[in-house]
Amino acid sequence: QVQLVESGGGLVQPGGSLRLSCAASGNIFSINVMGWYRQAPGKQRELVATITSGGSTDYADSVKGRFTISRDNAKNTVNLQMNSLKPEDTAVYYCKFTQGPFSFWGQGTQVTVSS
Q1: Residues 44, 47, 52, CA angle at the centre, nearest 5°?
Q2: In angstroms, rounded to a whole number, what is the distance separating the alpha carbons of residues 5 and 36?
Q3: Please, are residues 81 and 70 in contact by the beta-carbon 8 Å criterion?
Q4: 98-103, long-range: CB within 8 Å, 24+ apart, which pairs?
Q5: Which residues pair with 77 in a beta bridge?
């Protein structure tokens, strides 16, 4: 089992920035993938960004150039720096941890972009 604790959501004006963090604990293997997904009201959950334990990253087209994902393997944490936020970025953001055939989700943190 792996437990995930997210932090950093909140309310921000358009054009502003937020930083999300997720800490993983439990039975963690050295090879894994951590990432962020989001779900807006009435929409399906979608990928925002992922990063492997080797440092390879993947981003949704809608956030490229604005969001940056990073991780600290020693601390088993993943961060999402979100800049130039838009109202359409409003959603519940979920941390996901995958190792082998198993995936685990955080509880979600609300990000609201509004003036």
Answers
A1: 150
A2: 12
A3: yes
A4: 98/32, 98/33, 98/34, 98/35, 99/2, 99/28, 99/29, 99/31, 99/32, 99/33, 100/29, 102/2
A5: 23, 72
CA angle 53, 18, 74 (to 5 degrees): 25
Q: Which two tokens stand for residue 36?
A: 């962020």
**pLDDT tens digits, residue range 23-73?**
999 998 888 999 999 999 999 999 999 999 999 999 999 999 999 999 999
